[in-house]
Amino acid sequence: MPMMRYREALNQALREEMLRDEGVFLMGEDIGVFNGAYKVTAGLLDEFGERRVRDTPISENTIVGMGVGAAMLGLRPVVELMTINFSLLALDQIVNHASHIHYMFGGQVKVPLVVRMPQGAGHQLGPTHSHSWEALYLHVPGLLVAVPSTAADAKGLLKAAIRDENPVIFIEHEYLYGQRGEVPDDDEFVVPFGKAAVRREGSDVTIVGISRMAVTAEKAAALLSEQHEIEAEVIDPRTLRPLDLDTILESVRRTNRCVIVEEGWPHGGVGANLAALIQEQAFDDLDAPIGRVTGADVPMPYAKNLEQIAFPHEPEVVDAVLATFRDL
Amino acid sequence: MADHPLPEPDVAREWFETMLLIRHFEERAGEQYARAKIGGFLHLAIGEEASMVGTVRAMRDTDYLISTYRSHGQTIARGSPPGRVMAELFGRVDGLCHGRGGSMHMFDLPRRFMGGYGIVGGNLPIAAGFGLAADYMGNDDATVCQFGDGASNQGTFGETMNLAALWRLPVVFMVTNNRFGMGTALERHSAVTDLQVKGEGFGVPGMECDGMDVVDTFHVTTEALRIAREERRPVLVEALTYRFRGHSMADPEEYRTKAEVEEWRKRDPIITFGDRLVAETVITEDERAELDAAARQAADDAVAFADASPVPDPSSLYDDVYVLGGQIQGWYSVDERGAGVRKGEDLAEEHA
User: Fold this and answer.
1) Pairing state between β A239-241 and A144-146
2) Model confidence, pTM
3) Which side of chain A, N or C, has fewer Cβ within a 10 Å radius?
4) Does the ipTM surpass 0.90?
5) What local confidence, expressed as pLDDT, does residue B330 receive?
């Protein structure tokens, strides 16, 4: 299987879907002539032309809304927003419109729209370019939410997102763009939504890692094995809506312990939500309270040392896992 | 504003009938709201019938119309059965949206009425998206986007004007200037009160029509649609109109005087158009009364139809949150209403 970077895998997904379906087109700020702020769309303007790769003004709410309208008429727009922070400018179109339209109009019309954007800390971009907000979009019925953590998933999930009939919030990660992985070289390689990936098998504890934190969780699991003889099972849900809760529950019923790792804020976070769902259905199987490792409950600071302690790294995950074994 | 001749008698008569139907429909809706048959907010378009009918009659069946939370009349003008519109107000299964949308969210896909929207200014980007889709697919469908004077202050107004002009989209933006953004008068909410010029800085030329005159509205919209369709560029049309009722049924109207309302009522689009049809011998006074009675009956029938329609089945609560494929994987909706947790999408199955 060819190795490629996460951003290249996304590019390949866009290209393949544009070749496959004439209705797929791209809109976004600086995606064309500039080749994309993170180069995900590199080369696509040259290949497909201005009709299908559309540079837009800086008008997030309106370009997403135009995507909603075009999708309602049967096209498959893929809108790129430069960071997840900027998506808040489009929250009206995403939440009040894209997610509601199928339901509030009684199922008469569909909105097969993909809104792509990166999130995540680590590049010293400060409080308006660094957050992790999968929890915001997970909150909204009507939206699907994908959080790919590998190059292969980036490609396979994006292709699935473009083919899906629902509006999809597709959350990429700035740190992951440069990471390499094996990616199937197959036009029909699609990763279905709602199917978690078990990144590492283990019988002692279940670690659920979201977005980049799936990578962090896997590294932490290696440390746990080497240093503490704890074999962790690492699960990457890959999509948060639909959620493969069954795979997570099946694992927790075997390991009897669970830690959830995310980069976003703790209050109302993905972990808070997952912990509630797990304890409701697997309370008797749990030998310890469910642990959470989250980003710090602060706006993202600029200073490098502060930023680095404001999102989770392996040691915090190890600590949280060890805490589930204490006092027993 | 030019004095346009009337259209062919059959056409003029049909416009009048539709305006009467909207008027009586809205009056019945107001009554049913007072009787608590209709919930939520109810925004009536009494006084705005000419701007609605004149606009819709200038459109082709293949054109798209998108509007606001004040859109019962527009979807009726597009041909939606009044009973189904009323049933939506009643929250019944036979409503246009099966009781999911209510007054503010009408939608009728076969008639290309692409929705009433409850967020002021929220429909403008979507309208531009329709224009983009027509352009992309290479057809000559045009879009008419109606919104109120209040929406011209939203960010989406400027953003959408710019994009529509930049990409030469075939969209007619029609700002229905009824002189109030809810209870705030035009001159208190907009620095520029000549709304047709508000698009010019973005490259969208303006036109104006007398929204109290169905004939003038028809002619101006026809020309605007021609420009959009043939010259491939957007136009902003300002329809000068007035709503005789409050913003919604929950409006005590403390922001305007009765005298002002009375002054505008002299220009009631139905009375003035009816007078003209009689004066130009398109109809007689007797026929006018007959048409009025027929419209009243149609509105009564709509109420009866709505009242007879069942409420939605509780098991349908989670229907159409998502478009589900044959193979459902994972949990889409989580049902946590009460003891235990289950997939929302399984609800209908459990009730079956």
Assistant:
1) antiparallel
2) 0.96
3) C
4) yes
5) 87
